[in-house]
Amino acid sequence: MPRRPPPSRRRAPRQERAQATCDAILTATARVLLRDGYEAASTNRIAQEAGVSVGSLYQYFPSKEGLVTALMEQHRARTLADFEAGLVPLAGQPLPVAMRALIRQVLAVKRENPRLNQVLHELMPRMRQWGLSDVYSQRLHRLVRAFLAPRFEDLRPRNLDMAVFILVNAVEALCHTALTERPDYVEDDAFVDEIAALATGYLRPEPPPARPRGAPPRRGSAADADSSGATCVR
Fold first, then answer.
1. Angle, nearest 10°, between helix axes 135-148 and 160-181?
2. C-beta of residue 173 within 8 angstroms of C-beta of residue 199
């Protein structure tokens, strides 16, 4: 049974100085996670890294889990805001063009801080154990769905929610794996083109080329089966 979700903050900062303190604490959280890992990280180490007392840290964040949750929320909120802004000028673009632009944007975000992206990705299972719902993933799915909905009649999949689920997770998995295993691909436009071709081919596959008039049907085709009365199985 999942633990009760830890709150990300005790109270929200109301003054500019308090906000600066919170930002410094979250920046320190990221540095400690990158340097020491989640298990070795502690509120004492994070407070020392931020240059504040542990008491000041606890004024805003209830625990190490709360710090990690707040860091995740901050990081994903910024990422999602950039993604949403990038969707706006692509609304009227052809699907292949839009797909390439969106995939470039996803890779650009991951390139900004690849180690932090990796650490936060590895912490996602812990957040699920805490019972936290990934509201940013849900919002991302809604944004992609809204982007594809006006094009729905031209798409092959008939279940748009399922198509969005498959598309988002496939692109995210490929981009993340490239970042960790083949970083040379992340900078390669050919990699962008290949993922875009994969996504576009899934959403709107090209029809098979027309057979020239009078050309014999391919072996094993429906026409071949009809003419012979059966299709040979080899």
1. 120
2. no
Q: What is the pLDDT of residues 75-105, one digit of tens each?
A: 888 888 888 888 889 988 999 999 999 999 8
pLDDT at 112 over 70: yes
Quick one: which of 102, 99, 108 has its CA closest to 196?
99
- Residue 29 is which amino acid? T
Least confident of 26-30, 45-49, 107-111, 164-168: 107-111
Phi, psi of 16 (to 5 degrees): -60, -40
Q: What pTM does this model have?
A: 0.74
Contact 117, 140 (CB under 8 A): no
- Domains along the chain? 16-203 (1.10.357.10)
Task: For the chain, give the DSSP string.
Answer: -PPPPPPS-SS---SHHHHHHHHHHHHHHHHHHHHHHHHH--HHHHHHHHTS-HHHHHHH--SHHHHHHHHHHHHHHHHHHHHHHHHGGGTTS-HHHHHHHHHHHHHHHHHHSHHHHHHHHHHHHHHHHTT---HHHHHHHHHHHHHHGGGGGG-S-S-HHHHHHHHHHHHHHHHHHHHHH-HHHHT-HHHHHHHHHHHHHHHSPPPPPPPPTTPPPPTTSHHHHHHHSS----
